Amino acid sequence: MAFRPSTTTATLALPATTTEMPSLNQSFSLRARDQASSLLTRGSPGEGTRVNLVGGYYDAGDNVKFGFPMAFTATMLSWSVIEFGGLMKGELQNAKAAIRWATDYLLKATVHPDTIYVQVGDANKDHSCWERPEDMDTPRSVFKVDRNSPGSDVAAETAAALAAASLVFRRSDPTYSKLLVRRAIRVFQFADKYRGAYSNGLKKNVCPFYCSYSGYEDELLWGAAWLHKATKNPTYLNYIQVNGQTLGAAEFDNTFGWDNKHVGARILLSKAFLVQKLQSLHDYKGHADNFICSIIPGAPFSSAQYTPGGLLFKMSDSNMQYVTSTSFLLLTYAKYLTSAHNPLRMSYMVGYGPRYPRRIHHRGSSLPSIAVHPAKIQCSSGFSVMKSQSPNPNILVGAVVGGPDRHDRFPDQRSDYEQSEPSYINAPLVGALAYLAHSFGQL
Fold this sequence. Notes:
Its EC number is 3.2.1.4. Keywords: Carbohydrate metabolism, Cellulose degradation, Glycosidase, Hydrolase, Polysaccharide degradation. The chain is of the alpha+beta class. Helices cover 42% and strands 6% of the residues. Among the domains are: 7-151 and 166-215, Glycosyltransferase; 348-443, no CATH class. Strand 7 (305-306) and strand 8 form a beta hairpin. Helix 9 (217-231) runs parallel beside helix 11. The chain is elongated, with a radius of gyration of 29 Å.
C-alpha cells in the first residue's frame, strides 16, 4: 500500500454474508444493522493505525462513502427532527436510528484529533463497475484530511452534523448527546485552525464527485451556528458576530445543498433573533428575507428559475435535491416567523378567543342599546361613554379592528380610531378563512 500525505489505503475484510452498509435510500427499508469488521489504515511509514470505519452510508447509487455529503445528510435529518419531530409520530424512532447510524460512523471517522477520514472507496474505480455491495471487489481506499492537508469544509460540516444530532438525543440519550457535542467542538476547532478546502489536497479522489466548489467559509459559519445552538456557549455567538461577514453571511446566493450552506446558516441564525430575541443577530433575519424574495417568481430581486410546470430549477444534475432543501427552508423559516408570536396574546377579532379588544371605536357597540336605554342620547352626550374605560356593553362579534402598531402595542382605547376601529377589514378575510377552514391545503 503506497503512502500519500493526505490519503491512506486499506483492505476491508467483511463476512461473506454481510454488506458494509446500505445507501441512505436503502436504509429506510433495511434499517441499521451491526456488522463486525474494520479497516487497517497506514499512517506515516512504520506506523500502523487501526481505524474502525464500519457503518455510515454509501452515497446515492454508488458503493463509496463520501463523508462530505454524508455529514450534510446527518445535519439535515437532525434539523428535520428538531423542527418537526413531533409530527413524525411512529417514524420518529426510525429517523433517529438513521441519524445515529450516520453519527456513529462520524465518531469513528473523527476518532483521531486533527484528522478526519473523509472517504472510503475509490470513486473512479467504483464507477468502472456496476456491482451489488455484496459483490464489491473495488479497492476500499481511505482518504483523510489532517493538519498537513486540511479540509475546513468537510470538517465544519461534520461538526455541524454532530452538534445538530446532539440536540436530537439530548433527552433520550444524554450521555450520547454529550459525546456528540464534545466531538463537534473538537472537530470545529480543527476546521477553523487548519483552514483549506478538502478538494485542494484530494482533488483527484473527490472531484468531480463532491468538490468543494463554494469554498469552506460557508461551512465554518454553518458549523458555528449549530455549535451556538447546541452549546449556548457565547464563544460561538462571538465567533459569528466577528467572522460572519468575512465568511459570507451577506452574500447574495440562494442555493442550499451539500456544497453551499450560506442560506441554511442564515435561516438557522434568524431563529436566534426571532425566537430567542438575540438582537445582535438581527441582520440574519434580513438575510433570510432576501433569500425568500430571491426565489419568488417575478419578484424584482428574484434569481430563481422555474420549469414550465412550476418546479424550481437549479441545475440538471439532481435538481430535486434543491427543491427539497428549499422547501425545507421555507417551511422552517415560516415556523420561526410564527414563533415570533403575538406578544400580547391578543385576538384582534372581537369575541374570538379569551382576550380580544373590549373598547372598540364603534358607536353601536359602545353605547347602551335601546332595550337598556330607551331614551334618546343627544349628539354630544355619548362622548362621556366614548372617553370612558368601561368595556363596550354590546360585543360586536367577528369585527376585526385596526390592530397593533409596529412595536406590537395595542392600548385598547376607544378613542384610538387608528387601532381600535373596525372597518372593511373583514371583507378580504372571508375568502381566506373559507380556504383555511375547508380546503385541506388544496387550491
